[in-house]
């Protein structure tokens, strides 16, 4: 089979346990301390990594739940390093101590991702539903610096904490993070209950414009202290291009260290994937459905045989505005938001309200569109 390089896995998040010591409102897996551990054995884990190595040597992020709760976490990481993967780990920080840092170094962890959702204990702990969580992150950051372990900060935002976005960025910088990823929470897992709190399209546009100004300033100053990128807001790539054009700037964006290898907004199922603790393979961590299990079908086949994964690579079959959008190749639209809104992951991304040129001029395209949008259509161009 001819394998297209752009459709090989470059980054895989692997849920090695669903148990978690926190109870965050936005958690994709609704994890708690009582959640099932995940029944794969160390031998199953090794076999999975052997299968992945047959087609690629991606970055593998051990995640959870809280991955540090799994007893063989270091054995899994060491095996991955031995196989030639770039092993990373995502933790909420609370369990990090000197011993954990020494183990991370021993097994070759290349990058740790920490979550920080507020610039103060009050805001972060309210979001994480855990008094002391903020202190845990600050302490973990100190320890990583002491042990010279690179870390990045993931920050999740809803209406509840979005006002704090600029301060969280400053805090991530202050504590020495190599990168800061601004994530606009999606309607999945426990976040379904908190849907009313999710940022809407206009609010997302506001914060993505803010992010553009931040990134522009860093690029123009040649400031490489910290890499910044919104995650899971693929239309940021459109906004970035449009704003740079408006400003008459040719801004060269830096590549992310341990990025997802796409150079575009969303590469779910194209070069990234998520494997849950039961072995279900999904295009990304937030994708709610799966049609293949890597403990039944080896990963090197599952990656190609899953219909869902195949669909993710058929950009030309996207529907609605994404289906006719001139930015689709650099954006891709969020397939998860499309699924929640339209019950169809190939449909348009509802958090982006851009009206593609082909729609503006009412061109017929593949039978998807036969009229110019009219007053009353649920389409609003909020492009600056
Ligand atoms: S489909 Fe959506 S949630 Fe998944 S990686 Fe793409 S942008 Fe993120
Ligand atoms: S319409 Fe779809 S492809 Fe175009 S910018 Fe918006 S989300 Fe991206």
TrEMBL record:
Asked whether the UniProt record includes Secreted among its keywords, one would answer no
Q: Which InterPro entries match?
A: Aldolase_TIM, Elp3/MiaA/NifB-like_rSAM, PqqE-like, Radical_SAM_PqqE_MftC-like, rSAM, rSAM_sf
Q: Which UniProt keywords apply?
A: 4Fe-4S, Iron, Iron-sulfur, Metal-binding, S-adenosyl-L-methionine
**Highest taxon, organism lineage:** Bacteria
Q: What Gene3D superfamilies does the annotation carry?
A: Aldolase class I
Matching CDD domains, A to Z? Radical_SAM, SPASM_MftC-like
Q: Name one GO molecular function term.
A: catalytic activity
Q: Which cofactor names does the annotation list?
A: [4Fe-4S] cluster
* Domain Radical SAM core: residue ranges: 6-217
User: Signal among the record's keywords?
Assistant: no
Q: Which SUPFAM superfamilies match?
A: Radical SAM enzymes
Q: What is this protein called?
A: Radical SAM domain protein
């Amino acid at each position: 089979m001819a394998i297209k390089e752009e459709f090989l896995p470059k980054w895989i998040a692997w849920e090695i346990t669903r148990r978690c010591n926190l109870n965050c409102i936005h958690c994709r897996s609704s994890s708690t301390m009582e959640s099932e551990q995940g029944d794969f054995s160390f031998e199953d884990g090794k076999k999975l990594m052997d299968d992945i190595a047959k087609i690629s040597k991606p970055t593998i992020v051990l995640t959870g739940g809280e991955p540090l709760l799994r007893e063989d976490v270091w054995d899994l990481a060491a095996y991955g390093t031995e196989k030639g993967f770039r092993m990373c780990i995502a933790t909420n920080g609370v369990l990090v101590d000197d011993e954990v840092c020494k183990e991370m170094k021993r097994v070759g962890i290349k990058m740790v991702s920490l979550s920080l959702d507020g610039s103060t204990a009050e805001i972060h702990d309210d979001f994480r539903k855990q008094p002391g969580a903020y202190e845990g992150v600050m302490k973990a950051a100190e320890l990583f610096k002491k042990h010279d372990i690179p870390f990045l900060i993931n920050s999740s935002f809803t209406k509840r904490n979005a006002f704090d976005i600029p301060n969280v960025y400053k805090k991530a910088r202050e504590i020495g993070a190599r990168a800061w990823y601004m994530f606009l929470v999606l309607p999945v897992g426990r976040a379904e209950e908190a849907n009313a709190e999710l940022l809407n399209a206009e609010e997302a546009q506001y914060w993505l414009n803010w992010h553009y100004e931040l990134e522009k300033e860093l690029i123009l100053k040649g400031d490489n202290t910290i890499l910044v990128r919104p995650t899971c807001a693929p239309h940021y790539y459109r906004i970035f291009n449009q704003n740079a054009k408006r400003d008459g700037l040719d801004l060269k964006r830096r590549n992310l260290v341990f990025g997802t290898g796409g150079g575009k907004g969303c590469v779910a199922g194209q070069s990234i994937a998520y494997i849950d603790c039961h072995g279900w393979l999904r295009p990304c961590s937030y994708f709610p459905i799966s049609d293949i299990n890597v403990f039944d079908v080896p990963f090197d086949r599952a990656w190609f045989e899953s219909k869902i994964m195949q669909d993710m690579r058929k950009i030309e079959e996207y529907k609605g505005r994404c289906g006719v959008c001139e930015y689709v190749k650099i954006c891709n639209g969020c397939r998860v938001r499309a699924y929640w809104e339209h019950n169809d992951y190939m449909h348009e991304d509802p958090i982006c309200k851009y009206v593609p040129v082909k729609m503006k001029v009412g061109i017929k395209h593949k039978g998807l569109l036969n009229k110019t949008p009219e007053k009353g259509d649920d389409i609003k161009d909020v492009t600056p």
